[in-house]
Amino acid sequence: MVSEYDFWLLDLDGTLVDVEWSYTRDVFDRVGDRLGYRFSDREAEIIWNGLTGSRDHQLREWGLDPGEFWEAFHAEEDPYVRAEQTFLHEDAEFVGDLEEPVGLVTHCQEFLCEPVLDELGIRDWFDARLCCTEETGWKPDPTPVQRVMNDLGVGHNGHRGVLAGDGACDVGAAWNAGLDAIHVERIGHERRGQCVLGDYRVRSFDELDHPYFA
């Protein structure tokens, strides 16, 4: 299956890498202290992984102002500590062997993303990368995906591409940009509370070599 595509786009957090839970819990404790709100383990997991879709919508449902939350969240995140606490999923190592153009499209902010790429030694895996912002738009908006495609030189010119990610927003961005979508379920349907449909649904990228996906 890997050879079927002319280019690959990938999400970062939850797809290629994850962060130790102790780091996540500590960040939400400190953010909660700033906001006067106690985040349960489940609430921290929901926001960290975007389990219910729009994080801003979820925060509003809990009575929190998204702007205040993200200001506190980014103030409490230490990019270098986060990088040290981030690990690469073993099944994601195939990305480093891809011969096709590879792009990164992530919601992880640049000041956090860059140290992670350096710490894990995976910067050279990507021929183009984009950290989404309000200006670029957020997945499932196809705009950031299309920008990376243009940077790779694989715009709307007959190239067949795929986007792999762990969230429904990744699948939506892929389809909105006219790409195939791979959903890698790192969390489990039970904890997520829903099934995410994609052209391919896997628990590990190792499954992509299975005859079912050929």
Automatic annotation (TrEMBL):
The keyword Kinase applies. One of its GO terms (molecular function) is kinase activity. One of its GO terms (biological process) is DNA repair. It comes from the Archaea. It holds the Pfam family Hydrolase. Keywords: Kinase, Transferase. This is 3-phosphoglycerate kinase. It comes from Natronobacterium lacisalsi AJ5.
